[in-house]
Amino acid sequence: MAESGDSRRERRRAAVGTALFALGPVTVAGVLPWVVTRWKVQKPVPGGLPAQLAGALLLGSGTAVVANSFVHFAVEGVGTPAPFAPPKHLVVGGLYRFVRNPMYVAIAAAVTGQGLLLGQPKLLAAVALGALPVTAFVRFYEEPALARKFGAEYQAYRDHVPRWLPRLTPWRPESPSGTGPAL
Question: What 8-state DSSP symbol labels residue 174?
Answer without folding.
Answer: B
